[in-house]
Amino acid sequence: MAAGKAPGLAAVILDNNDSKFQQASIADIIETSSNYESQIPCLRLIDSFKKITLGKLLLECGVALTNLSSVKIIHICYRESKRIIRTEAFLELLKYLQKSTQLRDVLFTGCLLPANISSVSIPPNLKSMNVKVWSEWNGSTTSFGLLDLQSGQWHDAYRKEISSGDYAQNEEEFTQQMRGNRPDTRGQRLKERKEKGRVFVTSEMAI
Known about the structure:
By secondary structure, the chain is an alpha/beta fold. Helix content is 28%, strand content 27%.
């Protein structure tokens, strides 16, 4: 698939490799900027986004972000350990982001997002804001799928709907990359389950 044009990334960074104190200090700056309506061009969350809980964005270190209204671009990046973001968690994130009134782009790299989602589940405010949601495609940092918020369907750089077959291929390649990033400690257990006729796929990496 041809490469989509993703937004540039001059950013404020919250990196999970940094100390909790450092991340908390940066979070305070972000909150203050939002309260005073000072724009932040881009916020990068590197291995740091955990989940949305109680209306807040929770980081892996335990720090929570309440207000991102000043952020224009959000980049959620998994660099050291890839993630699968399930539908429920993805929709909770979209719901949270609709409060970010200056938001224009959300970019995901190093993670697998749901194939397609129900358009009625997408927050109406986010649709009216015309926010663009990008996802890394086929493991490439230069090729992106674009989520149509009106239909809940993924499209390629030419606005062509990504088929279920193409998504399945992308999912398979992503899963292989995940396995390549960590030892296959469950190989023997999966083999045993297969022999017993009860194989199932799980992922400790899923949100």
